[in-house]
Amino acid sequence: MAKKIKSFSTFFAYMVISVTLYCTSEAAKANTSAQPIIDATTQTKNANPAQNPRINAASKSDNEYIRLLINHQYPVLDAKFNAMQQDFEAGKIDDFKLEVAFNGFRIADPALEAPLDAWLQAFPRSYAAHVARGVYYLEIGQNARGDGYANKTSPKQFNALNTAIAKARTDLNTSLILNNKLLISYAYLLKIAKYYSDDSDLPMSRITSFILSNAHWKSRPSPNLQKQQDLLNAANHIAPHNFIARHSYMYNLQTKWGGSTQAMRNFFNKSKTAGLTPAELGYLESQVLLDHAWVEDQRGLAEASAVDYAAAIDQFGADINQFYPEVYVQMLDETAFELQKIKKYDSAFKYFQRAIEVDSKDVYAWSSLGFYFRQRHDLQSAANADRIAAELGNATAQDA
Fold first, then answer.
1. Out of 141-150, 168-177, 289-298, least confident range
2. CATH class for domain 1-48+282-400?
3. Residue 361, SS3?
């Protein structure tokens, strides 16, 4: 699915934490309540089974489908995905299981392109191969573009995104020619749709007025909502009670993508009559709260934002692995970030600690805990957190 995307850069957040904690060090010293020490062994505990696929090279993947792909087992791959699609059409599995399977190809490793091409050469009419390569190209594009604000993103990054998503859209459209019952293809086309303006051939990133920053997020042009509605209608025609296409559509309604919290709320209310499960509705509602919290953060309302992020976490549901665990981790990090802004460091600590319990590779949480423990004069725990953050790729933590 969904990959982990933060609304702030790690470096920026790191600097904010440094300054705010330094300025309140005396207050931190005054609080002598005992805190648990984060042991280095925590790094290997409770690993998130859906960890961010961008950091996993294909050669190291333990995903069944990737192993089959790199070992050139194309007939087996085709048979497995054909059987899965048939099971979905027969009502034996739900639509989310389809997305989980294809999300295995969300690995931004260039080495994966050749075996995907070879799969299509061996089975040129394989809809599964087209979907898999489309998913791969989407991840390649998003990884090339990065998570930074648009005014901090280079033309080279945008060009790489545009090239990759154009390839992804071609593959996904081709898959629908080969099999017009592919809900999964519509769900991924909806994920891609947010990158396009009212002119479906003009990527949003090429529009000069597109500046997604704290100062300009309100000025972003609206995407082509009618085309997105058409995609959703087609998906709903195939599977009236589907979750994955509705989730993709709702994601595009976020304020930072040109929508609004109210638009998300309206869509959520409409989805209540779509036959979704209570868990699916709970997840969608958590995303409405998440968007509202994001807007409050942009407006400088840190305390209100923290409250809504925490409410989104509560609404997410008890079974965090049922949908998108990486989104749950994002909400934990965002809540902690807002709590730090209002100097509630002990409360922030609890959210960072929970984030690491869910995803032991959450580099932002580890680097933040390094600061927290250092201000508490718990140098051993600080060193452990800094070391783990550095091993996970945080360049600043390497100098701590």
1. 141-150
2. mainly alpha
3. coil
The pair phi, psi for residue 204, each rounded to 5°, is -60, -35
Calculated CA dihedral for residues 112, 116, 121, 127, nearest 10 degrees? -170
The residues of the chain that CATH labels 1.25.40.10 are 1-48+282-400
Q: How many CB atoms lie within 10 A of CB 249?
A: 24
Place of tokens 């330094």: 22
H helices of the chain, in order, are 10-23, 25-30, 64-70, 74-89, 95-103, 113-122, 127-145, 155-178, 183-193, 225-238, 244-252, 261-271, 278-298, 302-316, 325-341, 345-358, 363-375, 379-391
Task: Please indicate whether residue 140 or residue 216 has the higher confidence score (pLDDT).
Answer: 140
- For 22-36, 77-91, 151-165, 318-332, which range has the lowest pLDDT when averaged over its residues? 22-36
Residues 6+ positions from 264 with CB-CB distance below 8 Å? 250, 253, 254, 287, 288, 291
| For residue 91, pLDDT beyond 80 | yes
